[in-house]
Amino acid sequence: MIDVTLQNFEAEVIAASMQTPILVDFWAPWCAPCKSLGPVLEKLEDDYAGRFKLVKIDSDNEQQLAQAFGVRSIPTCILVINGQPADGFAGALPEGKVREFLDKHVPSNDDLQAEADAQEAETLVESGDPYAAVEKLHEALATNPANDDARFDCAKLLIGLGELASAHQVLAPALAQIPVQLRFTALAQWLDAMEFAATDARSGWAMPQFDELIAVNKRDFDTRYAKSRILMAEGLMTEAMDELLEIIMRDKKWSNEAPRKTLVAILELLTPPKPKPGADAAGKTAGGIELAGKAVVQEDPQAALVSTYRRRLSMMLN
C-alpha cells in the first residue's frame, strides 16, 4: 500500500498501471466506512500477491485528484489499468464483493504465466530462434487456451516456418469463434495461399509465364489470382496486392469477392501492431492531469504502405 499525492501520482498510478492494475482508494481520516474498508483492501493486496497494487489518496488533502476522478463520496475505489480508469465502486463493500470486483479485471496467476511465456517467445523470435518461440507459445496456450494473442503469434510463426498442419491445429479454435476476429481470418487466408503454392501446378511457374497469359487476356482473373496467391506465399505482399487490385478494378464481385477478401487479409497482416501503452504517452492521464511533454509521432513506413493500399482499395470499391 502506497500513499499517493499529486507529486507522485504520475509515477505511482499512471506509470505503474502500465504494468500492473492499480486500485486507488479515496478516503479521509474522519470517514468511518473508509476505516472499515481499508484493512479489507490491504488484506486483498496481500492475498493477490502482486496481481494488483493498492494506493490510497486522502481526498481532503488531494482535492484536485479527487475532482479529476469525479469522486463524490468516500470511500470510492477506482481501478486504473494502462493509464485509464477501468471500473470502480463506492462504499465499504464486504471482502467477498471486493473480490468479485477484482476478479473481473485483475489477471489470474494462469494469465500472468501465459503472458510471461508470450513475452519470452517474443524475445526468442528477436534472437532468431522461432522454433523455441513456438514451444513457448504452446506452453502459454496450454496454460490459458483463451489467450488469443498467444494463439495468433503461434499460428503466424508456424505459417512462416511452413508448418502448415500445425498452424491449422492452432488456428482451429479461433476460426470457430463467432464472430471470427479479422486477424485470424487474415492468417487463414495466408495459410490458404501457402497451401495453394505448395500444391498447385502453377507454383513452379516463373512470373513471366503468368504475365504472358495476362497480356493476352487482361480479364484472365484465374491466372491473376493464382499469381497473387503465389506472391503472397513468397512474402511479396505489395506485388500480390497490386495484382489483386487489377482484378478488383475490372470485376469487384469476381469469385465471391475473393480478391477483395484476400487484399483485406494482406492489409491486416501488414498492419503494424499497436504500441504497448507507455507512461510517456502525450495528453492527459486517467484523472485528467496534464502530462508534461509531447510525444513526437513519426509515421511508420509500414503503416504508410497500409494506408496507401487501403485508400486505393476504397477508391476502387466506391
Structure description:
This protein has helices spanning 9-17, 32-47, 63-68, 95-103, 109-126, 130-143, 148-160, 164-175, 182-199, 207-216, 221-233, 237-250, 254-270, 301-317; strands at 2-3, 22-27, 53-58, 76-81, 84-90. The chain is of the alpha/beta class and 318 residues long. Among the domains are: 2-107, Glutaredoxin (3-Layer(aba) Sandwich); 108-180, Alpha Horseshoe (Serine Threonine Protein Phosphatase 5, Tetratricopeptide repeat). Strands 1-3-2-4-5 form a 5-stranded mixed beta sheet, sandwiched between helices. β2 (22-27), α2 and β3 form a beta-alpha-beta unit. Mean pLDDT is 88; it is low at 277-297.
Secondary-structure topology with pairs:
Blueprint: E1 2-3, H1 9-17, E2 22-27, H2 32-47, E3 53-58, H3 63-68, E4 76-81, E5 84-90, H4 95-103, H5 109-126, H6 130-143, H7 148-160, H8 164-175, H9 182-199, H10 207-216, H11 221-233, H12 237-250, H13 254-270, H14 301-317
Parallel strand pairs: 1-3, 2-3
Antiparallel strand pairs: 2-4, 4-5
β content, as a range?
Answer: 5-15%
Count the E strands.
5
CATH superfamily of the domain at 2-107: Glutaredoxin
Give the proportion of residues in helices: 55-70%
**What is the radius of gyration computed over CA atoms, rounded to a whole number of angstroms?**
26 Å
What gross morphology would you assign? elongated
Largest sheet: 5 strands, mixed
Sheet with the most strands: spatial strand order: 1-3-2-4-5
User: Structural class of the helices, strands and pairings?
Assistant: alpha/beta
CATH top-level class of the domain at 2-107? Alpha Beta
Low-pLDDT windows of residues: 277-297
> Which architecture of the domain at 2-107 would the CATH scheme give at its second level?
3-Layer(aba) Sandwich
- Say what the CATH topology of the domain at 2-107 is: Glutaredoxin
